[in-house]
Write a structure and sequence with these properties.
Radius of gyration: 21 Å
Number of helices: 7
Largest sheet: 5 strands, antiparallel
CATH topology: Rossmann fold
Strand order of the largest sheet: 2-1-4-5-6
Order of helices and strands: EEEHEEEHEHHHEHEEH
CATH architecture: 3-Layer(aba) Sandwich
Number of domains: 1
Structural class: alpha/beta
CATH superfamily: P-loop containing nucleotide triphosphate hydrolases
């Protein structure tokens, strides 16, 4: 499943914009306040009909329309906002059936701000990072070793990002908000190269660093001051914190089970030794 195009109309920050996304990595560039994070939240909200986005526009109808390629099927998701209410617009019964078949559990959204706080670094994460680099033939680009508290913030961020990419299931859509805040430019470019080599994943990420990159780049312009007050509202922590906890909790559970089994095995070996 991949996002093909997105059209946004009258939604506070933007009067009318049309975005085209590639199958691989897409980089949304722009200065602070341009709406990069809001755009990711809007995309995510189309897959989760739970009132994630709050928007009030009394004067005219606003909408977000997304064209998806879901395996061999084409699907249009359109969400309309009017007078504080929102709902999906469906053109036919066949579209309802397509939406029901859509695997929303393969849409993930993470924030670089919470990446360091949602999970404690451990040796398993380093192993996952090394496996990922081996899979994409980039082992020589990073020096990874688990050194506990002696690791720099930059090193820890690299391992967490690579571990996250390793855990994401294939054929997923990954939305990343400012994942490179704690790494230097060289590491940033190397991580982008890792992402480009993940052929079975669509990645849409944001950055405030505006430069030429070998990827589909979308540049957002800061909105006018008179419409900032009407921008879509959402709970940042609730949206960007949830996915990471779910993903990492599964890994932590597996690690706890492995450690419990190891303790039982050692206990049994000691008993036999007696």
């Amino acid at each position: 499943m991949i996002i093909d195009t997105v059209e946004i109309s009258n939604l506070g920050l933007w009067e009318n914009i049309f975005l085209k996304f590639d199958k691989g990595i897409n980089i949304i560039q722009g200065e602070n306040g341009a709406g990069k994070t809001t755009l990711l939240a809007l995309l995510y909200s189309l897959f989760r009909d739970s009132g994630i986005i709050k928007f009030t526009n009394e004067n005219q109808e606003a909408y977000v329309c997304m064209n998806l390629q879901n395996y061999k099927e084409k699907l249009v998701l359109k969400k309309v906002y009017k007078k504080g209410q929102s709902g999906y617009f469906v053109s036919s019964f066949s579209d309802i059936k397509k939406i029901a078949r859509m695997d929303e559990e393969k849409v993930f959204i993470f924030s670089g701000e919470f990446l360091d706080y949602d999970c404690q670094l451990n040796a398993k994460m380093v192993k996952n990072a090394v496996k990922l680099l081996k899979n994409v033939d980039m082992e020589g680009h990073f020096s990874l070793a688990y050194e506990g508290l002696y690791m720099s913030q930059g090193q820890q961020s690299i391992i967490r990002i690579l571990n996250m990419l390793y855990l994401i299931p294939s054929n997923s859509i990954l939305l990343l908000d400012a994942p490179f805040a704690k790494v230097d430019l060289k590491v940033r470019n190397d991580l982008i190269e890792v992402m480009k080599r993940l052929k079975d994943m669509q990645i849409i990420l944001t950055t405030s660093v505006i430069e030429e990159v070998e990827a589909n780049a979308i540049c957002l312009i800061r909105a006018c001051k008179n419409i900032i007050s009407t921008r879509p509202q959402f709970d940042y922590k609730k949206i960007f914190n949830n996915n990471m906890k779910q993903l990492m909790s599964g890994q932590e559970k597996n690690e706890e089970e492995r450690q419990a089994y190891e303790k039982l095995r050692v206990k049994a070996d000691n008993k036999e030794g007696r």
